[in-house]
Design a protein that fits this description.
Length: about 270
């Protein structure tokens, strides 16, 4: 069942390491939510080198830079004019066209943009930058659900475990769901080992299908559309259904923004209280 249309469920898709399929997951999950009839919008939170437009074969007319230039006067209705439209009905706020423009995107501007978009959509999905940079941490804190994408590589799992420890320290662990991408690939570590390594987290496994995913990326047509009957698409649809049915969001009161403290200030504050 779609979230309340005037208080969108916000989903932050993040990872502790690059190259794990975070953007591909964001694109396909967003379309899966959109195809249910829900109003869904994606923010490309990789403001220097965002790729969500490539995953969706978009030629953006506008980007978040255009919104930032009007941030003082923009309202929810006018913001819709800056969103790019996908054939599935999905709306997308793309990253700037040049990496140097990323410095224009402030947390204050993002705060206003998120509030305005939440008033217009059922789902707001953010493809964040990997790691815990300030803007990524901001999205994670504002989100109702946090999807941490990992795979079977030891380095990725090590960083994922560290990221989970940090989110636990910040009191955000209850929002987290782990998504293990390429879970059926050949590896010394198997999908059966993940629960033990990550100590029993809420985990979703996405099968490995290099051919379908590679073709999807190269032609810019999400596999959730082109290969809907494949196992990987069925898994994404299942994840979308889980997120839809698990909407435990208070629809009367949107979450309040936390004080503007740095990442290390927040960690220090948590440690001092324990």
């Amino acid at each position: 069942m779609p979230a309340h249309p005037h208080n969108a469920t916000m989903i932050a898709v993040c990872s502790a390491k690059g190259g794990v399929g975070r953007t591909v997951l964001t694109a396909n999950l967003s379309i899966a939510l959109s195809l249910t009839g829900a109003k869904a919008c994606v923010i490309d939170g990789c403001f220097q080198f965002g790729d969500i437009q490539m995953a969706l074969d978009l030629r953006p007319l506008f980007s978040i830079k255009d919104v930032i230039e009007q941030i003082e006067t923009i309202d929810a209705e006018s913001l819709l004019n800056y969103l790019n439209r996908h054939d599935s009905g999905l709306r997308i706020l793309t990253a700037p066209t040049r990496p140097e423009y990323a410095d224009l995107v402030t947390l204050e501007a993002l705060d206003k943009i998120i509030d305005l978009l939440r008033s217009k959509f059922n789902y707001l999905i953010v493809d964040t930058m990997y790691g815990l940079q300030e803007q990524t941490l901001f999205f994670i804190e504002r989100a109702d659900k946090i999807l941490i994408v990992t795979d079977l590589e030891m380095a990725t799992l090590k960083n994922t475990k560290m990221m989970l420890d940090v989110l636990t320290s910040l009191g955000l662990h209850h929002k987290v769901k782990i998504v293990v991408n390429r879970s059926t690939m050949q590896s010394v570590i198997t999908s059966r080992d993940i629960a033990q390594i990550l100590e029993g987290e809420s985990i979703m496994y996405i099968p490995n299908d290099f051919e379908i995913v590679s073709k999807s990326i190269n032609i810019g047509l999400p596999f959730i559309i082109k290969s809907r009957r494949s196992e990987i698409s069925k898994t994404i649809i299942s994840l979308a259904e889980q997120l839809s049915s698990a909407n435990a969001v208070n629809i009367d009161k949107p979450p309040k923004s936390s004080p503007r403290l740095s990442f290390f200030q927040k960690l220090k504050g948590q440690k001092e209280r324990t």
